[in-house]
Design a protein that fits this description.
The structure is a single chain. With 221 residues, this protein is mainly α. It is built from 10 helices and 6 strands. It has a two-stranded antiparallel ribbon. A two-stranded antiparallel ribbon has the order 3-6. Strands 4-5 form a two-stranded antiparallel ribbon. A hairpin with a 5-residue loop joins strand 4 and strand 5.
Length: 221
């Protein structure tokens, strides 16, 4: 956004017109450009230049509670043996994500290719900031990683070498990933909103991808 003008009862917002297309994760060059954009964001937005955005635990604290919900009320039909067998452990791990994800970096928290634009010169612009908040600088890459895994690319080598995540305690990453997985597991079993009848397909796919990744990382039987 380039400018905001309020005049005579009108609110006018002026945006840059970004040429280009959505980048493709399966293209190594375009994936590298997306990962470079995440690094640039962490540098430019630490500490946050905006002071009127919520903290990550305020924005997502009530959302990333799926495993604790299942532990209290019982898992619904269709849960995998692995999640049922480890339900209490998952709920305990999920309860730690908000403490480890705290920080003062301005986060996007919804990074995926359709929220990015690949400019003609090769750089990636981040758009659609619907869920901004402050938290640890590594959070955005971890929340982007399931989109990478969905393309059959292992995100763990990327997290191990990327500047924003390579020094982060794996337990912190596991806790946030556990929260995301519980969210999708719970959301995929809710009725779809009327304006998005195909949302359940996306939720179910997200649950599958994040659960498989979490299972590999934790190594629980």
């Amino acid at each position: 956004m380039l400018a905001t003008i309020e005049t005579d009862g009108w609110l006018i917002k002026v945006f840059e017109n970004i040429s280009g297309a959505h980048p493709r994760i399966e293209d190594p060059i375009e994936l590298a450009a997306m990962l470079a954009a995440v690094e640039q964001m962490s540098q430019a937005l630490s500490p946050t230049p905006l002071l009127d955005v919520p903290r990550i635990d305020d924005l997502y604290g009530a959302k990333l509670t799926g495993w604790r919900h299942f532990a209290q009320h019982g898992p619904p039909p269709g849960r995998t043996h692995w999640s049922r067998h480890n339900l209490d452990r998952l709920a305990d791990l999920e309860s730690t994500w908000s403490a480890t994800a705290a920080g003062d970096t301005l986060l996007h928290t919804d990074l995926r290719p359709d929220n990015m634009r690949l400019r003609p010169e090769g750089a990636v612009a981040i758009v659609d900031w619907a869920w901004p908040c402050t938290g640890a600088a590594w959070v955005d890459l971890v929340m982007f990683a399931p989109a990478i895994a969905d393309k059959d690319i292992d995100p763990d080598p990327i997290l191990a070498t990327h500047p924003v995540t390579r020094g982060i305690d794996p337990a912190s990453i596991n806790a946030l990933l556990c929260g995301l997985t519980g969210y999708w597991a719970n959301a995929s079993r809710q009725p779809p909103p009327p304006h998005a009848p195909h949302l359940q397909e996306h939720r179910a796919r997200a649950e599958l991808v994040t659960t498989r990744w979490l299972q590999r990382r934790l190594g629980w039987t």
